[in-house]
Amino acid sequence: MIGQPPPERADAARNRQKIIEVASRMIAEHGADQLSLDEVAKEAGVGVGTVYRRFGDRAGLVWALIDEREHRFQQAFLSGPPPIGPGAPPAERIRAFLSAVVDRVMDQEDLFLLVELGSPKARFGGPYKVHHTHLAGLLAQARPGADARFLADALLASVNAYLIRYQRDERGMSVEAIKSALDDLALSVTGGPPTSRRRG
Fold first, then answer.
1. pTM of this prediction?
2. Per-residue pLDDT tens for 151-160?
3. Domains of the chain
4. Phi and psi (nearest 5°) for 126?
């Protein structure tokens, strides 16, 4: 699981919560793309250095904002009921997981768009690393001998926030159509016939 910080001093915990609350309010009022760490620090009444030390960069602050929902998502695929959780065949779990990632991105789309603008370390660390490890493990079971780590990267590249937004806004695809096409992709990777779900 991600997002398990070491114990904090009471004042540090208060500052962290204040920064998160201010950032959440600023995003609600002005949109995620306008989020500035300098402005967050000013509104929160803390030094800019405090924000950078605690969160590293804007992507780090964004991950803190999505952390709670990410925890729930991870619990679902690590220990929840099948098919996303243990108990279903690996290929079925892969399909359920990728569909759930689409919902996860849509739930906080603006924040995921911001994260994807960050450095590779920020973008491919944190939750991505957990998602990749989980997916690669399932792929190793479903496709013994294949390069599971590469396949996990390739599948996760299909569920990035910018691509999903482009597919919806420019190609006119519904979320259901995106999931259906992604299901076909997962089936082609794990070995199975294409789904017959309607696209549109």
1. 0.76
2. 999 999 999 9
3. 1-56 (1.10.10.60), 66-190 (1.10.357.10)
4. 50, -130
What kind and span of H or E run contains 199?
none
DSSP 67-107: HHHHHHHHHHHHHSSTTTSBTB-HHHHHHHHHHHHHHHHHH
**Nearest-CA neighbor of 62 among 14, 115, 13?**
115
Contact status, residue 155 vs residue 98, Cβ threshold 8 Å: yes
Tokens of 67: 């952390």
CA distances 138 to 78, 85, 156, 193, Å, are: 11, 11, 13, 19
**Tokens 């299909």 found at:** 158
From the list 69, 72, 65, 70, the residue with the least C-alpha distance to 21 is: 65
- Coil, strand or helix at 120: helix
The single residue listed with the structure tokens 């979320």 is 175
Task: Give, in order, the Cα–Cα distances in Å from 42 to each of 6, 19, 37, 87.
Answer: 26, 10, 9, 49
CB < 8 Å & 24+ apart, contacts of 68-75: 69/104, 69/107, 69/108, 70/2, 70/3, 70/104, 70/127, 71/1, 71/2, 71/3, 73/100, 73/104, 74/1, 74/2, 74/127, 74/130, 75/1
pLDDT in tens, 31-45: 777 888 999 999 999
Is the distance from CB of 159 to CB of 102 less than 8 angstroms? yes
